[in-house]
Amino acid sequence: MSTEIENLWIDVKSACGGTFGAYVSMPPSGFGPGLLVLQEIFGVNDHIKNVCDQYALDGFVAVAPDIFWRQEPRVELAYDSNSLSKGLRLFEGLNIDIVAADLQRAVEAIRHIPSCTGKVGAIGFCMGGLLAFVSAARAGVESSVIYYGSRLEKHLELVNDVTCPLLFHFADLDTHIPNETIKKVKSSLKGKKNCRVILHENCTHGFNCWNRESWNQSVAATARGQTLVHLMESLG
C-alpha cells in the first residue's frame, strides 16, 4: 500500500458542451468512496487542494471541479479584498441550473475513477456549501455536508428533491448568514430523515479555512469530526 497521495487533474465533459477540469486527490490506500469537494468563491486554490488531500488521507477519492471554468478556467484567488471582489463577480455570473448539470457530470466522473468504491458524497464551503446542497438535489450524491452555505435561502425549494442525508454547519457570529436564514433552513428540513443543522459557537464565516483570519482551529476540528461521522454513516 502506498503512503503517498497522488494528485492529478482530470477532464470532465459538460452536458452543455465543452470540458472542465477537476482536481483529484487519491487516497494512499488506493481506493475509497468518492467525495465531491466544492470550492469557495476563491476557486480551486491551494486551500481547496489541501482540503482534497486532507480527505484523501481519510480514505476518500476527493475531487474538486472547476466551477468557474466558463468564465475563467482554473482561477486561483487569494484571501484579500481584490480577490474577494473578483470571486463575487464570478459567483454572480453563475447559472445554478447549468452548474447543477456540471456537478452531475462530475459525480458520474468520480464514479468511473477506478479507485472509487461506488458511493459519492459532497462537501462544500460558502458558495460551495450552496453547491453541496444543490448536489444533494440534482447531482445524485449519497450524502452531503454544507459549511456555511451562501444564498441557501434562495434555493430552499430544492429540498423537495433531496433524499440523501444532509449536515449543515453554521457559525453563530456569521455576519454573512443571518439567523433568519438558519431558521428557514431548519424549517425546510422538517419531515426529512437524517438531516442535521449544527450551529457552532464563538466563530464566524470561514471558520474551516486555515488561510483566513476567521479560521477557528477548535471549531474546525470539531466540525471535521462530525463531518467524517456523517459521511461514513452514509458512504461506508
Question: What would your notes on this structure say?
Answer:
It is built from 6 helices and 8 strands; from the N terminus they run βββαβααβαββαβα. The chain has 236 residues and is an alpha/beta fold. It has an 8-stranded mixed β-sheet with strand order 1-2-4-3-5-6-7-8, sandwiched between helices. Helix 3 (96-111) packs across helix 4 (127-138). It is globular. The relative contact order is 0.13.
Provide the fold topology.
Layout: E1 6-13, E2 19-26, E3 32-38, H1 46-57, E4 61-65, H2 81-92, H3 96-111, E5 116-125, H4 127-138, E6 143-147, E7 166-171, H5 179-188, E8 195-200, H6 217-235
Parallel strand pairs: 3-4, 3-5, 5-6, 6-7, 7-8
Antiparallel strand pairs: 1-2, 2-4
Quote the average pLDDT.
Answer: 97
Strand content: 15-25%
Helix content: 25-40%
| Class based on secondary structure composition and strand pairing | alpha/beta
Number of H- or I-type helical stretches:
6
Helix and strand succession? EEEHEHHEHEEHEH
Based on DSSP secondary structure assignment, what is the total number of beta strands? 8
Termini Cα gap: 20 Å
Looking at the structure, what is the overall shape?
globular
Measured on Cα atoms, how large is the radius of gyration?
16 Å
Q: Any low-confidence stretches, pLDDT <50, length ≥5?
A: none
Please describe the biggest sheet, giving its number of strands, its sense, and whether it closes into a barrel.
8 strands, mixed
What strand line-up does the widest sheet have?
1-2-4-3-5-6-7-8
